[in-house]
Amino acid sequence: xxxxxxxxxxxxxxxxxxxxxxxxxxxxxxxxxxxxxxxxxxxxxxxxxxxxxxxxxxxxxxxxxxxxxxxxxxxxxxxxxxxxxxxxxxxxxxxxxxxxxxxxxxxxxxxxxxxxxxxxxxxxxxxxxxxxxxxxxxxxxxxxxxxxxxxxxxxxxxxxxxxxxxxxxxxxxxxxxxxxxxxxxxxxxxxxxxxxxxxxxxxxxxxxxxxxxxxxxxxxxxxxxxxxxxxxxxxxxxxxxxxxxxxxxxxxxxxxxxxxxxxxxxxxxxxxxxxxxxxxxxxxxxxxxxxxxxxxxxxxxxxxxxxxxxxxxxxxxxxxxxxxxxxxxxxxxxxxxxxxxxxxxxxxxxxxxxxxxxxxxxxxxxxxxxxxxxxxxxxxxxxxxxxxxxxxxxxxxx
Amino acid sequence: xxxxxxxxxxxxxxxxxxxxxxxxxxxxxxxxxxxxxxxxxxxxxxxxxxxxxxxxxxxxxxxxxxxxxxxxxxxxxxxxxxxxxxxxxxxxxxxxxxxxxxxxxxxxxxxxxxxxxxxxxxxxxxxxxxxxxxxx
Lengths: 398, 136
Ligand SMILES: [Zn+2]
Known about the structure:
The complex is a heterodimer.
Chain A: E1 5-12, H1 23-38, E2 48-51, H2 59-67, E3 74-77, H3 83-96, E4 102-109, H4 149-164, H5 169-183, H6 197-202, E5 205-207, E6 210-211, E7 221-229, H7 230-233, H8 238-243, E8 245-254, H9 269-282, E9 291-293, H10 299-308, H11 317-322, H12 339-342, H13 347-362, E10 376-383, E11 387-395
Chain B: H1 2-7, E1 9-11, E2 16-17, E3 23-29, E4 35-36, E5 51-56, E6 59-68, E7 79-86, E8 89-95, E9 110-121, E10 124-133
Parallel strand pairs in B: 1-10
Antiparallel strand pairs in B: 2-3, 3-4, 3-5, 6-7, 6-9, 7-8, 9-10
The structure holds zinc ion.
């Protein structure tokens, strides 16, 4: 029997531009606030799992040097946009394995002004020289389609349209209208401005059908969570037990081989697999979820994940959206935080920040944007490459 | 002498074969039939290590596309990135010789392989490829 693991404390920083703070500052802010939220200190931690992609490396130890060097094992993890979820999963695995009874997971990124991610510098060559695994004599991005994120996720959405019936530009844009509207209730979002359909469709086109507000917002931010074993939690105060959130499922997958996956990343199969495993672990189904935070790195991605997470019938993502279900007053609220398109996407923080969002609701502490009576929630991230993290969380029975 | 100078060509990638007719070639796993365009260590589907070169159909249909309007410096925009289903083999390529808007590009449209000159360096002309609407 695997022991239950609980979120004891959790925090996210304000997402946005933090010119006066480095990654360690943001990590320290989130980590110390998460421990304070859980009523514990570094002395209680048995493991630190730390995620950061664009810093200099060794982020976990740099963080320890600022917030507490206790000699515990540090796991520096990177897994693209699933880095935060991977850090959390690492701490959860350590507790499930009985290696320790409490752990800290932190994810931080400084991204404000980073521009297009996944862009490869283009170099001039004097002669045609075949290089790499394709024997390419020139950079292939832009010549042989694109592997950059906006174009890739645009094609993911269009592929769904080809498979199940065309999805219009306007439908994708309406998803973005929803998330920007939701963000107006989130004071920690990088952008919390309502945008009309006309504004979104008329904004700068990045990669059809995604305009700029339909793409995740580059920004700075950090998030951290303290996880605790069931046995240890029972020794803590009643208040700590009452606010603890049960991790009913913690799943990480990579993409299994499918015919097209090395030509266009298959973000569907690994998400479907992670969802199936998560529902099995938690003993719940999509119908039981009171809210969902899913990885809307682009509006086109949100659509396909309605389907991948089983929130609708196969092929029924457009109907699901058009029904109003994923709005905050609908039957299956999705991305009430504003999602990555408006809350922002500081890559390594994202996979813990989405857990913070749902914990906030499950604790009944979400203020103006509280989903009333929320008991069960799902948080999903995907990193291209690919890695998918899904956590299902439940409020304490007490 | 002039003949050799003008006829020297090199493909953009080694899986573009400049024979007549020009075509793409894949590394096909002899065990499970999975097809790849890159140099392989083993098959991602079945882990076998035996591959054979196979020609890929030169016509297909657009299974997905995007019109990229913003790209890093050095990449000309707009361009149309596309996934082409060539008789069951997925190929990534630009759509060429088509107006880059959603009035002219449709999911499911029939396309065929085409090539273009990327310019000459050291007397060698590089040849790129894409797919164009069959109607052209
Ligand atoms: Zn094989």
